[in-house]
Amino acid sequence: VEVIPAIDLRGGRCVRLHQGDFAQETIFSDDPVAMARQWQEQGGPRLHLVDLDGAATGEPAHLEIISAIVAALDTPVQVGGGIRTADTARAWLEAGVDRVVIGTAAVRNPGMVQEVCSSHGSGRVVVAVDAREGMVAVQGWQEASEVSALELAHNMAALGVVRLLYTDISRDGTLSGPDLDTNTQLVRETGMAVLASGGVSSVEDIRQLVPTRVEGVIVGRALYTGAVALPEAIEAATEREEGSDWWGDGG
Q1: Which of 30, 31, 74, 130 is catalytic?
Q2: Catalytic residue list contains 179
Q3: What is the residue-level pLDDT of the chain in tens, covering all 251 positions?
Q4: Does the keyword Cytoplasm apply (predicted)?
């Protein structure tokens, strides 16, 4: 399981929100590039960057900072927030971003997701399934849709998407523990690679995610507050249970 540090950008700074609420913001750094370097130096296998302003407005707002992070790192970077058109996705991928994370457009314009997968390869696309009480939220989590998390996952699988990022919004930024049941269900019922996000509070939470067979886990507030040390988290994510047969050859 990959442990992926998150860098959420708002107003040029690294922040964390509580349950996606822009009014409940904690600022952790005024230097996102330095923060990205820190996570790379501590062994992060990739970084998850979110343009929060872009997610709210529908237009990328941190082009210069994210480009600077990509240029400064050897670690692959995936970027989400405000990617609503195929042109925007292409621009990020051509700028050196490894993967684009598409949320709102997956609900409102699924043909755009299919176009990006066809043009750039499905391995470079992550669809964000951001759910509140089982229903997907859009527009920077500020608006509810009428699509369930599982329905969106199946719709995206039918379009050739191979990777999801599932976030339980009610847990995001709360350090209340991850949603083990839904992550397990998504892996089993869709056969897709799933990245888990929201609520990780301890190394033990990461150990509990390993048997769900998620591909990775996004960790934010727990890293910034020191509740989780990245090297210890990475070690926990690679532990195998003796005598277990759930792991499989792929690890």
Answers
A1: 130
A2: no
A3: 999 999 999 999 999 887 667 777 789 999 999 999 999 999 999 999 999 998 888 888 899 999 999 999 999 999 999 999 999 999 999 999 999 999 999 999 999 999 999 999 999 999 999 888 888 988 766 777 889 999 999 999 999 999 999 998 887 676 788 999 999 999 999 999 999 998 899 999 999 999 999 999 999 999 999 999 999 999 999 886 443 444 443 33
A4: yes
- Nearest-angstrom CA–CA distance, 102 and 236: 29
Distance of CA 99 to the CA centre of its chain: 10
DSSP labels for 8-33?
EEETTEEEEEETTEEEEEEEEES-HH
Active site residue 8: yes
Q: In the structure encoding, which two tokens stand for residue 30, read together?
A: 């005024």
